[in-house]
Amino acid sequence: MKNIFLILLIAVSFSGCEKDDICDANTVTTPRLVVEFYDISNPTTAKNVVSLKVTGDGMTEDLGIYSGVSKIKLPLKVTEDITKYHFVLNSSDTNNDNEDVITINYARQNVFVSRACGYKTIFGLSGTTPITYAEPATPDGAWIQELQIVTPTITSENETHVKIFF
């Protein structure tokens, strides 16, 4: 009788257990903005950036310094509807560097992924001009010649969202 009681006690104690909730690394979470660079003189040809430093507005640390790539991924703020970046081309040459400021306006939507992963935020570019680019406070000549929105809804990192021509 004691053995049956012990077996029932063990069975009941383990019946409430679930597998560990671990977010799989392959699970899609909050996507970053995918920006691809193109040659302004040949708009169908991707163009690699040289020493491009990207910094978020008000940040002291860079989001990255990119060289020899034509595509980058940048995080958008999940607590605000606007993100501003400072793009500095040729950042390693202080005599020849060139800064442009890009402002992105969007609407956020939180989507439940799973208990383990929680929520992800997806973004929809909003307004009549969801992305603008301009000179910084101290003008140095714009290096960005044109900007084109390719995918206005940012739900994954598998596609280009914005093309920058220079």
Keywords:
166 residues; mainly beta; 8% helix; globular
Overview of the structural elements:
The protein has 166 residues and is mainly beta. It has one domain (26-165). Helices cover 8% and strands 43% of the residues. It has 1 helix and 12 strands; from the N terminus they run H-E-E-E-E-E-E-E-E-E-E-E-E. Strands 3, 4, 6, 7, 8, 9 and 11 form a 7-stranded antiparallel beta sheet that branches. Strands 1, 2, 5, 10 and 12 form a 5-stranded mixed beta sheet that branches. The longest helix is centred in the N-terminal third of the chain and has 14 residues, at 2-15. The termini are far apart. The mean pLDDT is 89.
H/E element order: HEEEEEEEEEEEE
Oligomer designation: single chain
End-to-end C-alpha gap: 82 Å
- Alpha-carbon Rg, integer: 23 Å
- Low-pLDDT parts are none
Percent of sequence in beta strands: 35-45%
Shape: globular
Main pleated-sheet profile: 7 strands, antiparallel
Mean pLDDT across all residues, rounded?
89
Structural class: mainly beta
Domain module count: 1
How many beta-strand runs?
12
The share of residues in helices is: under 10%
Give me the number of helical elements. 1
Could you write a compact summary of the structure shown?
This protein has 166 residues and is mainly beta. The protein has 1 helix and 12 strands.
Would you spell out the secondary-structure blueprint of this structure?
Blueprint: H1 2-15, E1 33-39, E2 42-46, E3 52-56, E4 64-66, E5 71-74, E6 82-89, E7 98-114, E8 118-125, E9 131-134, E10 146-149, E11 153-154, E12 162-165
Parallel strand pairs: 1-12
Antiparallel strand pairs: 1-2, 1-5, 3-4, 3-6, 6-7, 7-8, 7-9, 8-11, 10-12
